[in-house]
Design goal:
The chain contains 13 helices and 23 strands. By secondary structure, the protein is of the alpha+beta class. Strands 13, 14, 15, 16, 17, 18, 19, 20, 22 and 23 form a 10-stranded antiparallel beta sheet that branches. The protein has a 4-stranded antiparallel beta sheet with strand order 6-5-4-7, with no helix packed on it. Strands 1-2-21 form a 3-stranded antiparallel beta sheet, covered by helices on one side. A hairpin with a 3-residue loop joins strand 17 and strand 18. Helix 6 crosses helix 12.
Length: about 450
């Protein structure tokens, strides 16, 4: 049934900068977004370094669906629904590993790593040899894409291809996936994937990582401790103070991020100086990136979001985080940590220790964030609270298209917050796109960047 314009201009009124709390706490809206957002968008599934060899698998999620990311005997990558075609049991109950077949522990149906049904107990006796096994393989995603090691998938055969889905935001995703020295790709997952639960709606962390630059009061104690790589704050504070600070979004696609742009003749300040090996590695990488990327080598990223629920953190800690919905009142967070695959062991070990103390469930910074999301969600569920919308009015009307500064043009809708300190530009963009997905009947309405054929 068509929803019309229930969300755009209604529950999500960006003209007034107001968003209803109902979209965070309402059970019916949550069920609707599982159908309208998570079955149609491209979702991050994992990284190819997690399935390096034939038979390797990693059990991931797409929305509330358990899926298997795996590599078959021909080294092709697949993403399958983790559910037996007979009675629905998970055919893989381990987080990761290597196997020639996935065998359902309920009735014993087994599937090869290419998804084909290869084993059915009592096939001749119980089915009289007539079961059409060719039609009962594991359910595979409609589209799959690998990009610089990252793996993405969608259930919608009508969705645009992944690179079209990204558009010009691709350059900002590259800040996380490319080598620190500017080479294409070259990252790998460091260790396992951290997983934990937060009692809040998934849109709270998605909003925060879209570019909430207003909540630094939450991290004041962390800044005072000085846990950053240079011992001066959460990040390289000298670099941040020297750079132009921008928020960038793409309204037609719903992606957004923050960036720092150093002045043209400003070298990258030294960092990681408590470790000579690490300091020298990053010094060489920074110089090489400038050589390879030219003007773009002055750009470094800060948190961003690939719509709907994949967070990017291009600077250290260099991570992907996915906000898996687990009902309107709970989110399961999965976080991948990335390093350059060819970096020295001392660098990987240094970053592993820094990543752990910075983010994740034990990280000093993310604990601050989770406390905010928990309490904000809980305080928004009451009958009276739901009558009062949230306000998103910072910076309205001050966006610049194709921003230029000091010889560098950056694509997207840009908000310069160097002096303003904060804007809710990127946050509004997240909810703009969310509302469009909730109102639209399909990709004919959502792919607004396509021009009609003449």
């Amino acid at each position: 049934m068509a929803t019309g314009r229930r969300y755009r201009g209604g529950l999500v009124d960006l003209g007034a900068g107001l968003i209803s709390r109902e979209i965070f706490v309402n059970e019916e809206i949550y069920a609707e977004e599982l159908e309208r957002v998570f079955t149609r968008a491209w979702l991050f599934v994992g990284h190819e370094s997690q399935i390096a060899k034939p038979g390797d698998y990693f059990v991931s999620c797409m929305g509330e669906e358990s899926v298997i990311l795996c590599r078959d005997r021909e080294e092709r990558v697949h993403v399958f629904l983790n559910s037996c075609r007979h009675r629905g049991m998970k055919v893989c109950r381990y987080d990761e590993g290597n196997t020639p077949v996935f065998t359902c522990p309920y009735h014993g149906w087994s599937y090869a790593a290419d998804g084909k049904l290869v084993g059915v107990p009592y096939f001749r006796e119980a089915y009289h040899g007539k079961l059409d096994r060719s039609q009962l393989g594991l359910v595979e995603v409609a589209q799959l894409a690998t990009y610089k090691g990252s793996v993405w998938a969608t259930w919608d055969p009508n969705a645009p291809g992944f690179l079209e889905y990204l558009g010009e935001f691709r350059r900002y995703l590259d800040l996380t996936l490319d080598g620190w020295d500017g080479r294409d790709g070259g990252t790998e997952v460091l260790g396992g994937v951290q997983k934990w639960l937060i009692p809040c709606n998934w849109k709270f962390p998605a909003e925060n990582f879209s570019g909430d630059s207003y909540h630094n009061i939450s991290h004041r104690s962390v800044d005072m401790v000085g846990i950053g790589p240079s011992g001066s704050g959460r990040r390289d504070m000298r670099e941040r103070l020297l750079a132009r600070r921008l928020q960038i979004c793409f309204p037609e696609r719903g992606h957004q991020t923050g960036v720092y742009v150093l002045p043209k003749d400003q070298p990258t300040p030294p960092a990681y100086q408590q470790s000579p090996v690490v300091s020298e590695f990053f010094k060489q990488c920074e110089a090489e990136r400038r050589r390879r990327r030219g003007e773009w080598g002055r750009v470094t990223g800060s948190p961003g979001e690939v719509f709907p629920n994949t967070a990017l953190h291009p600077r250290q800690p260099r991570t992907f985080a996915v906000w898996h919905p687990r009902g309107p009142h709970q989110t399961e967070v999965w976080r991948w940590y990335l390093v350059d695959s060819e970096s020295p062991p001392e660098v990987k070990d240094f970053l592993r220790q820094y990543y752990i103390r910075y983010s994740g469930p034990a990280g000093l910074t993310e604990q601050d964030d989770m406390e905010n999301w928990n309490y904000a969600h809980a305080a928004s569920r009451g009958t009276i609270a739901r009558r009062y919308p949230y306000t998103y009015e910072q910076g309205m009307g001050f966006e610049v298209e194709n921003y230029e500064w000091d010889g560098l043009r950056l694509p997207g809708s840009v908000m310069d917050i160097t002096e303003a300190k904060s804007s809710e530009h990127n946050l509004r963009n997240l909810y703009r796109r969310w509302a469009e997905f909730m109102d639209a009947e399909g990709w004919d309405e959502l792919a607004t960047w396509r021009t009609p054929a003449s």
